[in-house]
Specification:
The protein is of the alpha/beta class and about 625 residues long. The chain has 17 helices and 29 strands. The chain binds adenosine-5'-triphosphate (ATP) and magnesium ion (MG). It is an enzyme of class 6 (ligase).
Length: about 625
């Protein structure tokens, strides 16, 4: 019998408009009815109506197949970049500054740099671009390494720009010897004047540019020895001020900084700039394709100039468009404010789009890689709505995680004529390989309080006095015979029911959990901000915080099958990303679909006694808005 039941339930589908689980036939009927209604409404008025936006039939939905996570390398921009320099030994690098946690935008850079190398059989280094000692902290180094491995990538080498401080210094002296650098003492104001004013005042060089090699070497060594206070001396590259590109107007190569460096301590008084360091480190590491974002297009000229001037190996820099996400903030300063003012639970809050936050929420790394591939890579920047990201995550989870029944606000139902039975239930209606688990049915079950109404009404298909509803996986629908109220005289305390053996097919099916279910805390997340552009809101992004971004259900119940789902994590089982390779997935790899509710993952605040579940994403697009 159990088999027949599961067979039947497996064919149920979600009615996206009502959230009901219904048979294929019933869904078809409902959709046809809505389509007809929509057509009538459209005929009545030319203006678009709400009814006209009825959901598309399931058949028209995008095919549920995995996105090729190498698609971006096979065509378009990145394919052209490879063809410009089709070398056998592809070498790339991902060069974060270790001054904060990475966010979703960085995931694009990671996927591109590591992925490009992997696709072409090459290698990619993780290079900490640590030339700015003031902002660096140990935690960021560790967090960045962890998140790259979580995304499924292994750096060929982990390097630090600071590893090269001595070599960079020597090349700076070499640049002086080649008369392509000089020590300058100008103030910011003077430098600004030297840059001229388009068509009004010409650009010019200061007198320091005329110093001879010996003087420059002496002064530069004095800088290194600590003779100069910050801002009183710096080394400038002698480029080409007649070039229209400001990146050629004698950029700084070294400045004096009074700061302890994370790795080199106080041994250096001078630190190289990004413009001096980046291209040379790329050259030292033999980078064939140096991929960065389009803000660096103008810098390509100075990047090439420096390597040419020193006659070292020349990597090729190419630039792709940044990924921006609307409806949230990504800047370190802003997230720091949310954290410091207690709006969120920390840098890894599930509502944030830091990668540690997305990870904690339960988004699988594979879904992030699919997302990057779906968007594609071009030279244009892209701004994506959170809903689009959610959609990718939802599709990914749909095919890869088990299903369980969970109720957020349990309502006790006594089924008078239910016999104790063991029900064998598949973890997935589509993927038999996920196996089955057994539910022990007794007379007592719990349904969600929202699936019961004390008064029936038209268009309502769930439980009400005298009315029947299907319980997923149960042999018969149940019919409500009576209910009791709590002391407040309003809240329903319990429902009495019996099997409806009339043979009538229920209009809808709801989820339920058995008596021996596990109590869990569920954290339902909505967008952290009310608007699509939190920064544009009057008074700033802090004024746009959504007071309902987190709703807690402290007494939710999940069926006992959860225990097996927990033990068998990580979900998905596929071996495509870091979390499955490491074989020691964190709580966030315990993922499942709570039927009719949402996708969930275990939160890192969980303890053996107290399980906390995060909502990863809703089951359908408009929920929670
Ligand atoms: P932010 O200003 O957002 O903190 P950043 O550019 O200062 O970012 P880095 O540590 O310098 O952060 O970034 C490391 C790499 O990631 C760089 O190559 C950078 O171009 C890339 N990157 C940063 N943000 C994005 C983004 N939104 N989209 C794509 N690539 C990005
Ligand atoms: Mg940067």
């Amino acid at each position: 019998m159990a088999d027949a039941i599961t067979e039947g339930a497996a064919k149920l589908q979600l009615d996206e408009e009502t959230g009901d689980m219904v048979s294929k036939g019933e869904l078809k009927k409902r959709l046809a009815k809505r389509a007809k209604k929509a057509a009538t409404a459209k005929a009545k008025s030319e203006a678009p109506t709400k009814a006209a936006a009825a959901p598309k039939p399931a058949a028209e939905k995008k095919e549920d197949v995995p996105v090729d996570i190498n698609a971006i390398f096979k065509e378009g921009f990145l394919d052209r970049v490879y063809k410009e320099r089709p070398v056998k030994d592809v070498y790339t690098r991902f060069p974060p500054e270790p001054n904060g946690y990475l966010h979703i935008g960085h995931a694009k850079a990671i996927a591109i740099n590591f992925g490009f190398a992997r696709f072409h059989g090459g290698q990619c280094n993780l290079r900490f671009d640590d030339t700015n000692p003031e902002a660096e902290e140990e935690v960021y180094f560790t967090a960045i390494k962890e998140i790259i491995s979580w995304l499924g990538f292994t750096p060929a080498k982990i390097t630090h720009s600071s590893d090269n401080f001595e070599r960079l210094y020597e090349l700076a002296e070499e640049l002086i010897r080649r008369e392509k650098a000089y020590v300058c003492h100008c103030s910011d104001t003077e430098i600004k004047l030297q840059r001229g004013d388009e068509g009004k005042r010409p650009r010019y060089r200061c007198e320091h540019a005329e110093r001879d090699i010996e003087t420059n070497l002496t002064e530069f060594r004095a800088m290194r020895a600590g003779k100069y206070a910050p801002k009183t001396a710096f080394l400038r590259m002698k480029q080409d001020i007649t070039d229209g590109n400001p990146q050629m107007w004698d950029l700084a190569a070294y400045r004096v900084l009074d700061a302890e460096h994370h790795r080199t301590g106080d041994s250096w008084k001078i630190y190289p700039t990004y413009d001096f360091t980046h291209g040379l480190c790329d050259s030292f590491e033999g980078i064939s394709h140096s991929l960065c974002t389009t803000e660096f297009i103008q810098s390509r000229v100075s990047y090439e100039w420096l390597n040419k001037s020193l006659e070292v190996y020349e990597p090729m820099q190419r630039e792709y468009g940044r990924l921006s996400i609307s409806g949230t903030v990504l800047s370190k300063r802003k997230i720091a404010r949310l954290v410091n003012e207690g709006v969120v639970r920390g840098w890894n809050d599930p509502r944030l789009y830091t990668l540690i936050g997305i990870r904690r929420r339960g988004v699988p790394p594979g879904a992030i890689l699919e997302f990057v591939n779906e968007l594609g890579v071009t030279t244009a920047g892209t701004t994506i709505q959170l809903a689009r990201f959610d959609q990718t995550v939802r599709r990914y989870l749909e095919r890869s995680v088990p299903r369980l029944m969970l109720v957020l606000t349990p309502l006790r139902v006594e089924i008078s004529d239910a016999e104790p039975t063991d029900l064998v239930i598949p973890f997935s209606p589509k993927d038999a390989a996920m196996g089955t688990h057994t539910l022990h049915l007794t007379k007592t079950v719990f349904i969600d309080a929202s699936d019961f109404r004390t008064e029936d009404s038209k268009g309502y298909f769930r439980l009400a006095p005298g009315k029947s509803v299907g319980l997923l996986q149960l042999p018969f629908p149940i019919k409500c015979t009576s209910f009791t109220l709590a002391e407040d005289g309003k809240t329903v305390a319990s429902v009495s029911a019996e099997y409806d053996r009339s043979g009538a097919k229920p209009k809808t099916y709801i989820q339920w959990v058995p008596e021996d279910s596990c109590k869990v805390e569920v954290r339902m997340y909505n967008q952290l901000f009310k608007s699509e552009k939190p920064d544009d809101v009057e008074g700033g992004f802090m004024k746009d915080v959504n007071p309902e971004s987190e709703t807690i259900y402290a007494d939710a119940l999940v069926e006992p099958g959860f225990e097996e789902v927990r033990k068998r994590a990580p979900w998905p089982e596929a071996k495509e990303t870091g979390e499955s390779k490491l074989g020691e997935g964190g709580p966030e790899t315990v993922r499942f679909q709570g039927m009719r509710v949402a996708y969930f993952a275990m939160d890192s605040d969980s303890t053996p006694e107290h399980t906390i579940l995060n909502r990863i994403v809703s089951l359908k697009e408009d929920a929670g808005k």
